[in-house]
Design goal:
The complex is a heterodimer of chains A (about 290) and B (about 400). Chain A has about 290 residues and is mostly helical. Chain A has helices at about 1-10, 15-35, 45-55, 65-85, 100-120, 125-155, 170-180, 195, 205-230, 240-260, 265-290. Chain B is globular and about 65 Å long. The chains are: A mainly alpha (about 290), B alpha+beta (about 400).
């Protein structure tokens, strides 16, 4: 019993997810800033932002649904958190059964969908455009993402476990690109493109609701990078997990700095006609048993 | 899919300067530009110029714009000098060219950096702004100021160049030239940049001529329109040839701007090499008098295009100054090139026009309770207490 409470609340659950999520967000901002040739905020800035936003008031505009606006970021956050329950982080597993890979896929979609729902609930034209883009992005990214997950899932009876996917370069590549898309970082930060549609779905958000969104985003970074380092880079111990995670984080940052934003049609075309088919090659190899 | 209005500005993260655009969009596609409201930045400078002496007016005209202020004073001073029938010393002409071209580089780099920012490539934005600092530092070295240089006065310039400064400027130009060639490569070859700028916001040559487009926007559409072709300052002796492009899209405008920067460096080198010795300004009385009722139109090639000053004299002060800024001329083609583009292209296209609202806002449009009122001549007279018929 005490073990379960620990897992839910401390590691890999709530507290560690919040701390590592915001820490990753901070590292992301700091290293990006150095690559941009500027100083950037301190690494603990996301914590300060979170506390500040939490202490502010909620503003609900006339056209928006306050309930949904409050619930949407919480559900996004909870979805990202749930995924961590199934991850064998650092070698020890909490919840694990055959087929949990599908729950992970569902939960990751939920996080995106509720991001969009939260945008639609505000009734702002920029938020509507952003939410439509988010939905299109989900359609675009899920194809290669799910294929790459299933490819490695096949070999582990759809039970999340450490696996080093070096035999499946295409699936690995598809996962890394979708990772960037799932985190909506450049070149796929289309749904919150500040230069085009202000903040996208987050335009009307403020105070604790925005804080929850930021938190959900941070936890999503931590979740996706942990997923990558376990499922595709085969981290079995705490040490390899840390190394893999930081490597992935660095890769994410490099991709973030060297690319500009794609347009939504370009992104859809890239995922469906380039990344997707590549991932399918590896899935076919697995299905036919044509791997080493 | 039903269409809806997308308001862009006056407060919008992409367009830092206040302009309000009413765009009708259908999904991701822009159907039309239904309204363009300026006037959030109206400073009343034209009116204020009428109450100042000629010398003081030069300093006020610099405050029209924070980026191309030196061009405003050049145009104003050139107009007044023409009214007075005086010719400024050769050394002053050279210094005006050098400061103008340096300012052109920093203005163009600012625009290019913003375009990079609009397409989500913040790295390029920060790099360009870092290299823009070289131009800013050189301007500070020459004029003592980073923003409003106050270099021009009626009858010449206010600060001289010494050999030490010339050497430093030449060194700065060398390092800047390397970076500019690098950026030309980046803008022409980088896939991320090309994907967002190539074949976006195409302005045809015909449309450019019909809508009176000026500056790099026109030159990127194969229109040879550059005031520097005409003989003012020393551009004729420098054998100036404008940079022309023919594709007319955002990419071409970027390339034209970059090549103009390289060309500016060449012009500056020639100027620094051939700068003659002598006075930097004519000795003029404190209170300059110009024949009453004389009028002139003074053009100049600002970074964004043709800048025109209409000046009419009232003896010891201007009777009327009308400033026509390049951004105002370029707004006319904006509706046409925005039509049919995607929402994602709007900021890139608008930034590629290099709008400067601060220059442009000269007419007040007051919108009260949904009713639009355009203030006419009578209203202004009324507001002004009935002075100046």
């Amino acid at each position: 019993m005490i073990n379960e409470v620990f897992h839910f609340l401390v590691f890999p659950g709530l507290i560690s997810a919040i701390i590592f999520g915001l820490l990753y967000e901070g590292i992301l901002r700091k290293v990006t800033a150095h690559m941009h040739n500027r100083i950037g905020p301190p690494i603990w800035q996301p914590f300060l932002d979170f506390v500040k936003l939490m202490s502010k008031e909620n503003i609900t505009t006339k056209d928006s649904f306050g309930m949904i606006m409050t619930l949407a970021p919480v559900i996004s956050f909870a979805s990202a958190l749930t995924v961590l329950m199934f991850l064998p982080v650092g070698g020890f597993t909490f919840l694990s059964f055959s087929g949990d890979i599908f729950i992970v896929i569902y939960m990751l979609i939920m996080a995106g969908v509720f991001f969009a729902v939260g945008g639609f609930a505000t009734g702002n034209p920029f938020a509507s455009v952003g939410s439509i883009r988010e939905i299109i992005q989900i359609f675009a990214i899920e194809f290669p993402f799910v294929i790459s997950m299933i490819t490695v899932g096949f070999l582990m009876n759809f039970n999340l476990s450490p696996f080093f996917a070096w035999q499946f370069p295409f699936a690995l590549f598809a996962f890394l690109v979708s990772l960037q898309g799932k985190l909506s970082l450049p070149p796929f930060h289309i749904q919150e493109a500040e230069q085009e549609i202000v903040a996208g779905p987050l335009t009307e958000y403020s105070g604790p609701r925005l804080a929850m969104h930021e938190l959900a985003k941070g936890v999503m970074v931590w979740t996706m990078i942990s997923l990558g380092s376990v499922l595709f880079l085969g981290a079995t111990t705490i040490l390899t997990f840390a190394i893999n995670s930081l490597l992935l984080l660095f890769l994410v940052i490099v991709l973030r700095t060297i690319f500009g934003r794609l347009k939504i049609n370009q992104s859809l075309r890239l995922f469906w006609f380039v990344i997707g088919p590549l991932a399918v090659i590896d899935l076919a190899r697995v299905l036919l048993g044509l791997y080493i | 899919m039903h269409d809806f209005f997308l308001p862009v500005g006056p407060q919008h993260p992409a367009l830092v300067e206040p302009v309000h655009m009413k765009l009708r969009v259908e999904g991701e596609t822009v159907v039309s530009l239904d309204g363009l409201e300026l006037g959030y930045n109206h400073k009343g400078i034209e009116k204020a110029l009428e109450n100042r002496s000629w010398t003081k007016s030069v300093f006020l005209s610099e405050r029209v714009c924070g980026i191309c202020g030196n061009f405003h004073t050049s145009a104003f001073a050139q107009g007044v000098e023409r009214l007075m029938g005086i010719e400024i010393p050769d050394r002053a002409k050279h210094i005006r060219v050098i400061v103008s071209e340096l300012e052109r580089i920093h203005s163009h780099l600012l625009c290019l950096g913003l375009i990079a920012h609009e397409m989500g490539l913040d790295t390029l934005f920060h790099y360009i702004f870092r290299d823009r600092e070289t131009a800013m530092d050189l301007l500070e070295l020459l004029s003592g100021n980073r923003v409003h240089f106050s270099m021009n006065t009626i009858g010449g310039v206010r600060r001289d160049l010494d050999t030490d400064n010339i050497r430093k400027v030449e060194e700065g130009l060398d390092s800047m030239e390397d970076r500019l060639y690098h950026y030309i490569k980046v803008f022409e070859r980088d896939s991320s940049v090309k994907r967002r700028t190539s074949k976006v916001g195409i302005l045809s040559e015909k449309l450019a001529i019909e809508t009176g487009t000026v500056g790099p926007c026109a030159r990127a559409s194969n229109v040879n329109y550059d005031i520097r072709n005409e003989d003012y300052l020393t551009y004729k002796e420098l054998k100036f040839k404008p940079v022309i492009g023919d594709r007319g899209d955002v990419l071409e405008r970027n390339i034209v701007r970059l090549k103009e920067c390289v060309q500016s460096i060449k012009l500056m080198r020639d100027s620094l090499f051939s700068i003659p010795k002598g006075e930097i300004a004519l000795k003029l009385p404190m209170m300059i008098k110009v024949g009453e009722g004389l009028e002139t139109l003074s053009h100049i090639e600002a970074p964004r295009g043709e800048l025109a000053y209409y000046i009419r004299s009232a003896g010891d002060r201007p009777y009327r100054v009308k400033i026509r800024t390049p951004t105002y001329a370029n707004f006319h083609m904006l509706g046409n090139i925005l039509k049919g583009c995607q929402i994602a292209d709007i900021p890139v296209i608008v930034a590629s026009m290099d709008p400067c609202m601060s220059c442009t806002d000269r007419v007040t449009l007051v919108n009260t309770k949904g009713k639009e009122t355009v203030l006419g001549k009578e209203d202004f007279h009324h507001l002004n207490g009935g002075h100046h018929d």
